[in-house]
Amino acid sequence: MRYTFPVSGVTTWVVLPFAVAFFLAFFGAMAGVTGAFLLLPFQLSVLGYTAAGVSATNFVYNVFAIPGTVTRYGQEGRINWPLALAITGGSLPGITVGYFLRITYLTDLRYFKPFAGLVLLYLAWLVGRSVFGKARKDDGPAPERTARISGMKYGFTRMSFSFAGCDYDFDPRPIFLVSLIVGVVGGAYGIGGGAVLAPFCIAVMRLPVHSVAGASLLGTLVCSVVGVAVYSFGIPEARPDFLLGALFGVGGMVGGYLGARCQKHIPQRPIKIGIFIMLLFASFRYLLPLLKN
To answer: What is the pTM of this model?
Structure first.
């Protein structure tokens, strides 16, 4: 059955947004991303939704899709609170800045796509290097199903935690800075930031996938709630299509929850390969128009 969404003007089969969101969230949840960075080009290119409200609609998708996934990670003791704090603290200030950039300077998506494509391509290279380069000790089998994040310590220059019998520590300042930049970009285009922050934490900060996913998604959820609020009370043409976003969100909610349940059964290497493929696809999706010119 085809339906026309009154706010966005999009006409499509009702089952299509649900199915696409389910697929993206199922595989994305294992790596700490919602799939919103792929949902945006889908809305632009397939559904033809090009108004500023597409960014806000992406945020609505995150608000619906993430809570069940985060809840599942929380129940299993796999939310890295120090990492979540660093990600959220950096991302939140950028959301509002990104909104004003979106409605003031970035009304033309052509200014965003080359930048996003290059960033995603660089992250794909980093993740690919860790997958196809020299094997690392944390690329082995999946951790025990009962493995939980513990021993969490907080600080301005050093945070630490324990997971699956290993101790990890990291400097939160680079994560805070990258999160701030990603927050500005995400605020402008409705891509919560997990697509950049999760690969950054995995490939650059050298943190294990299974300890990053919950924190990345929690940070994305908080920022998406703020993003929906900012866009909803802003200019009319930038307000979200709540009905379309909710339909995406329900698919993402089901897919994300199932993906979170499956993550602990999957070794890190296949998850990293999945991240690599998604990043590569998204980067070429943004860069391809430039190559044709």
So the answer is: 0.78
